[in-house]
Amino acid sequence: QVQLVESGGGLVQAGGSLRLSCAASGSIFSINVMGWYRQAPGKRRELVATITSPGSVNYADSVKGRFTIFRDNAKRTLSLQMNSLKPEDTAVYYCNAGGSGIPSYWGQGTQVTVSS
Known about the structure:
- The structure is a single chain.
- The chain has about 120 residues and is mainly β.
- It contains no helices and 11 strands.
- The strands form 2 sheets. Strands 2, 4, 5, 6, 9, 10 and 11 form a 7-stranded mixed beta sheet that branches. The chain has a 4-stranded antiparallel beta sheet with strand order 1-3-8-7, with no helix packed on it.
- The radius of gyration is 14 Å and the shape is globular.
């Protein structure tokens, strides 16, 4: 089983920055893609960014140019650098890990609140 723990959320004013981190542990050898998702109250959970084992990245149009996803394999961490934050970025952010033919794993989430 894979365990994911997010950290780094908080309250920030519009235009500010935050860096989210996800610490992974357990049987991670079969994981080939990881990503960040977010969910605002009353809305569906949506993709923010993903990164594959070879390092290919994908971003939602709403965050492209402002957010950067990266990983540190040695430390088993996934990070999301968020710059130029907007009030519409306010949500609970979740770390996700998956692979072909295996269950998708989720962290418990970390709250990001951006004030106007």
